[in-house]
Amino acid sequence: MDDVAPVARHYGIDWLRIGAFGLLIIYHVAMVFAPWPWVVKWPETFPSLIVPMALLTPWRIPLLFVVAGFATRRLIARMPSIGAFAHQRSLRLLVPLAFAMLVLLPPELWVRAQLAGDADSLARFWLHDYWRPWAQNGRGFPQWEHMWFVVYLWAYTMVLALLLARVGAGRIQAWFEWLAVGRRIIWAPMLALAGAKVALMFIVPETHGLTTDWSGHVGYLPLFLFGFALGGSPALWRAIRQHWVGALVIAGLCSLVVVGVELQYQGTDVPGHALMAANRAARRAMAWGVIIALLRLADGMLNRDHPLRRPLAEAVFPAYLIHHPVLVVLAWVIPAWGMSAGAGFVFLLSATAAACAACYVIGRDIPWLRPLIGLAPATPRPARRLA
């Protein structure tokens, strides 16, 4: 992999990753109280959450794939070969996935089964029903729930490894540096992402299935590859610095469409095909505009180190693993405690954050647990000299 030059750490990208995962936890807690369907719902929902969540939804996951692609560029530059890179990334992604599916997800899926009318205990569900391959209460093994992001990230990483082996990093770089000419960094990705979404939205389902979610893949995979190219491209960074304002303005205009549709069509109301297509296209264009603006923020104001950056960045993966099952179980239990919605929101957010922190703080000091929660093996500390 001689054509993948070493990449210096970009502190701003680290802060974007930390902030994006923090927003993800807040977003999932808010879904308990928002009008849209989710795993577990509070007895009362709040339409006032529609606008802020509609403004977050289009770009929060796409941003994570861009950031993941950027980080992958730095990782791959340190590997001796493409095979070694693919092996290392498979261990770092698939081992935590397996741990989540075997240990962390069963309680969450048991809650889903309880809500569907299953009267079995957690122990029986975990030891028996969970492993059935056929659908029961709408679920059949294997289920990866929120871990779909890890599955997609692994698949895209393998696609990148294949591309590196066949065409090389230089060719991939050239594909995306075409965007650095003129204002292409604004309009070309918006048109491509929106057009691909509209072309597929009435043909394939919008589901998180690795072999079925082509509507998602045509959006997420190019963003991941763009992040990889950005990691080694001063030209793309220059284009972002020059045109981020225009991208943000277009994102703001698209957000009017997104928010307007969400406010107009609530509950089971569904817009017509033309308006639905316009809404999906606006979401993709909005996502790209916000991402460009956030990348500019990362490269300017956020590109500086802080003592908290390293532990927070390392804690992201363990937090992602644990937050969803903890939140689902707690959101199912606490309405019976008689809390108000405000107190419930604060409790769920605080308890989920505490569980994330505990998973990291405890897991980082246990060598055998580190790979299970997505942490690299601990670096041996140098022996202290005796005076």
Describe the structure.
InterPro entries: Acyl_transf_3_dom (IPR002656), Glucan_succinyl_AcylTrfase (IPR050623). Keywords: Acyltransferase, Membrane, Transferase, Transmembrane, Transmembrane helix. Residues 11-363 form the Acyltransferase domain. One of its GO terms (molecular function) is acyltransferase activity. The chain is mainly alpha-helical and 387 residues long. It has one domain (11-373). The chain contains twelve helices and no strands. It has helices spanning 11-31, 50-76, 82-115, 122-127, 148-166, 168-177, 184-201, 214-230, 234-264, 273-299, 309-333, 341-363. Helix 6 (168-177) crosses helix 8, helix 9 (234-264) runs antiparallel to helix 10 and helix 11 (309-333) packs across helix 12 (341-363). The longest helix is centred in the first third of the chain and has 34 residues, at 82-115. The chain is globular. Mean pLDDT is 91; it is low at 382-387.
Distance between the first and last residues' Cα: 45 Å
Radius of gyration: 22 Å
Strand content: under 5%
Which descriptor suits the 3D outline?
globular
Helicity, in percent?
A: 55-70%
Structural class: mainly alpha
> What is the number of E strands?
0
Mean pLDDT across all residues, rounded?
91
Order of helices and strands: HHHHHHHHHHHH
State the major sheet: none
**Which spans of ≥5 residues are poorly predicted at pLDDT below 50?**
382-387
- Tally of individual helices: 12
